[in-house]
Design brief:
Helix content is about 45%, strand content about 15%. It has ten helices and eight strands. The chain has helices at about 115-125, 145-155, 160-180, 190-210, 220-225, 230-240, 245-260, 265-275, 280-290, 295-300, and strands at about 30-40, 55-60, 65-70, 70-75, 80-85, 90-95, 100-105, 135. The strands form two sheets. A five-stranded antiparallel beta sheet has the order 1-7-2-5-8, covered by helices on one side. Strands 4-3-6 form a three-stranded antiparallel beta sheet, with helices on one face. A hairpin with a 2-residue loop joins β3 and β4. The radius of gyration is 20 Å and the shape is globular.
């Protein structure tokens, strides 16, 4: 685990400069994160596009929510489970005004690479298949109750037990593999176009991370991805449901939130440090994404 993120609260998504998530594993020495979590509109981890080498499995215990995976919106209800493949850009979002409870397991594929043969025959064919960014186990599907029950048991029984986590991961993977052998395929467009857009978006996300303090334009962002402004807009809207400029504004607001919670800088200083033209514009934009003013956010965080 990256040391600077050691004490960050659970749920908040922290990203590296390349846009990949710093997964805060339950134990830094074992690559798994298993958590009984929730989502509600406006929480810090809602609508934050990211990706990681780990696969992500989410089972909804109560309520309704959704995931955006590689530009496809997947609606989830109680009893549903979603498998998000390695390296796919995704984010969760609330679809109601109520709290939704879920179990999430973020697991690195190397946990079940017990031998070269297993890795090559059972693991690598799935995590490298970019035509399948996700598998949706709807609660009425024949295999949904089995994978849902495994997720419940893993969260209940496996805390601090690497052997049991590995055991359950193998059982989960067995169910996931069966979907693949049945030629379960989800195409965003076609393999080359989807993979290419994914790569372009990651390049543009990295550019925004490195330059968000500066005045940057749509043309600057598009140039970083090697695409036209029109295609830049299409890629962001398809894969993040935001325009490039909206993504930049929300990214800056997340940086504002970090500084409000961790520094004694003035509002003017924070605005200057995060690329806003002034404190009033920063406050207006911040309220749009966090539903409260920067001053109120700072009070609530300190409280």
């Amino acid at each position: 685990m990256d040391q600077q993120y050691k004490n960050v609260k659970r749920g908040v998504i922290i990203k590296r400069k390349d846009g990949s998530e710093v997964v805060r594993y339950n134990d830094p020495s074992f690559p798994s994160y298993i958590f009984d979590g929730y989502i509600v509109k406006g929480c810090d981890w809602e609508r934050v596009p990211h990706y990681h080498e780990d696969v992500e499995i989410v089972s909804v215990k109560g309520g309704e929510m959704a995931y955006m995976v590689e530009g496809t919106l997947v609606k989830l209800k109680k009893g549903d489970t979603l498998f998000v493949n390695s390296g796919c850009i995704h984010y969760s979002l609330s679809t109601t005004n109520e709290v939704t409870r879920y179990i999430i397991a973020i697991l690195h594929p190397k946990i079940i690479c017990s031998s070269f043969a297993v890795e090559q025959k059972a693991v690598r064919p799935i995590v490298s298949d970019k035509t399948v960014p996700f598998v949706h186990f709807k609660r009425e599907d024949f295999d949904a109750p089995s994978i849902f029950q495994l997720m419940i048991e893993m969260e209940d029984n496996c805390k601090g037990n690497e052997f049991l986590i590995t055991k359950y991961f193998f059982e989960l993977w067995d169910i996931i593999m069966r979907r693949f052998t049945e030629a379960y395929r989800v195409h965003v467009h076609n393999m080359e176009e989807s993979s290419g857009h994914n790569s372009r978006l990651k390049e543009m996300m990295l550019f925004i991370d490195e330059r968000y303090r500066d005045r940057i334009s749509l043309n600057d962002i598009a140039r970083a991805g090697g695409v036209s402004q029109s295609l830049c807009n299409q890629i962001f809207n398809k894969l993040t449901e935001k325009s490039p400029i909206e993504y930049l504004a929300q990214y800056r607001c997340r940086k504002v939130a970090d500084l409000l919670a961790s520094s004694e800088m003035s509002m003017t200083e924070i605005a200057d440090a995060t690329g806003f033209s002034g404190a009033s514009y920063m406050a207006e934009t911040f309220k749009k994404y966090f539903n409260q003013s920067p001053r109120d956010y700072k009070k609530n965080q300190r409280r």
